[in-house]
Amino acid sequence: MTRRFNLVTCALVLAAGCATGAAGPPAGSVDRILAAGGGQVITQTVNENTRLVVNAPVDRVWTALLTAYSELEIAPTDMDRSAGVFGNSGFVMPARMRQRPASDYFSCGGTVNGMFGRSGRVQASVQSRISATPDGKTMLVTNVRGNFRSSEGTSTRPVTCDSTGLIEQFLQSELERQFPKS
After folding, report:
1. pLDDT band for position 17 (50/70/90)?
2. Residue 144's pLDDT is what?
3. Could you report how far apart the first and last alpha carbons of the chain are, in Å?
4. How far apart are CA 29 and CA 32, in angstroms?
5. Using an 8 Å Cβ cutoff, are 74 and 126 in contact?
6. Calpha distance 57→135 (Å, rounded)
7. Long-range contacts from 46-52, C-beta under 8 angstroms, 24+ separation
8. What tens digit of pLDDT does each residue of 48-97 get?
9. In the predicted model, is pLDDT for residue 171 greater than 60?
10. Helix, strand or coil, per DSSP, at residue 23
11. What b/e sequence results for 32-57 when a residue is b if at least 16 CB atoms lie within 10 Å of its CB, and e otherwise?
12. Among positive and negative, which fits the CA dihedral 18, 22, 28, 31?
C-alpha cells in the first residue's frame, strides 16, 4: 500500500509540475537575486538579449553590422550568414572603448577600485543573431557577456561580468541611424 501511495503521489506531483501556470519571464531573461535577508528575497528579471526590428532586409543589416562592430573595434570572428550569427566569442575588452573605461561596459561585481582596479582582463562574447521577419525586415538579437580574469598570478576562478547594455545600445543605435523606422 505504501509503495502504491508513493507512486501515485509522485505521479500527481509530476503532473502538477507540468501544468501551465502564470507565464514566466520572456525567453533569454534571467532572474537575479539582488538582496536577501529578514525573510525577504528581492529579485530582478533582466533580459540579457536586446531585440530590435530593423527596417531593412537581412543582407543590408549584415553589412551594417560589420561597420558597427568595426566602430567598436570588435573584429567579428563568428560569421555564419546561413545561421544568421555575427560576432566575436573571444573578444578581449580593451581598457578603453570609444573613450570610455571598460567598467562602463561590464559590471563584474567590483567597485570602482575593485575588479577593474586590479590587473586583469575581461574576455567577452558579443554575439548578434539576425533573421528575416515575414514583412521583409530583420530581427536583431544581441547578447553580451564576459568574464574577468585576474593576471596577478593567482589561481582564482574568473568572475562573471554582466553587460551594462552600452555595447548593445550602440549596435542598435547604429542600425537605427542607418535604417530609420518608417
Report:
1. very low
2. 93
3. 69
4. 10
5. yes
6. 9
7. 46/162, 48/143, 48/144, 48/145, 48/162, 48/163, 49/141, 49/142, 49/143, 50/141, 50/142, 50/143, 50/165, 50/168, 50/169, 50/172, 51/139, 51/140, 51/141, 52/139, 52/140, 52/172, 52/175, 52/176
8. 457 899 999 999 999 999 999 999 999 999 999 999 999 999 999 998 89
9. yes
10. coil
11. eeeeeeeeeeeeeeeeebbebebbbe
12. negative
Strand partners, 161: 146
Does the reported pTM lie above 0.90? Answer: no
61 in Cβ contact with 91 (< 8 Å) = no
Dist. CA 61–CA 137, nearest whole Å: 9
SS3 of residue 13 by DSSP: helix
DSSP three-state, residue 180: coil
What's at 170, amino acid-wise? F
- The predicted pLDDT at position 23 comes to 35
Average pLDDT, the chain: 76
Question: 125 with 45: CB under 8 angstroms?
Answer: no
Helix/strand/coil for 154 = coil
- pLDDT computed for residue 149 by the predictor: 83
DSSP state of 71: H
